[in-house]
């Protein structure tokens, strides 16, 4: 009878520990990044083929900003992903919408491919960045892709981008880098 009592007491203690651990885990669940159930008003996707980096920026009509960075992507799928969120004012959203409502933006072709240039040795070279801007706002639906553009150290100036895409690129890069904060995955 004593062995049975000791066994029951041990099982009771283990059971209480498991229940306590479960309650603790439920109480400390990590927060999730908010991803709206709507299409973003403006979205970008920049892929840097040489470094294996990819940046995606989503700006929603209400000013919510979601920036996702993948670094060191390889075929094996080894990479790090960071999430950043932010909030733009109504005025900042209106300013961005004005940029993409320019007739020059609406007149852009769907795709531009950088033809490359020749080095002093006569070798043709192309860039390693693919960049896509997608606009889905009211009656404006437009996607513009740039293929094989230069990305020297992720520089801010891309003089070969057609206007106003160069201006849009710079403004959106500034938002991603200066108006978002890293999402903390903790309560």
Textual characterization of the structure:
By secondary structure, the chain is an alpha+beta fold. It has 2 domains: 1-29; 42-182, Mago nashi protein (2-Layer Sandwich). The protein is 29% helix and 31% strand. It has an 8-stranded mixed β-sheet, covered by helices on one side. A two-stranded antiparallel ribbon has the order 6-7.
Name some characteristics of this structure.
187 residues, alpha+beta, Mago nashi protein, 2 domains, 8-stranded mixed β-sheet, two-stranded antiparallel sheet, 4 helices, 10 strands, elongated
Summarize the structure.
By secondary structure, the chain is α+β, with helices and mostly antiparallel strands. The chain has four helices and ten strands; from the N terminus they run H-E-E-E-E-H-H-E-E-E-E-E-H-E.
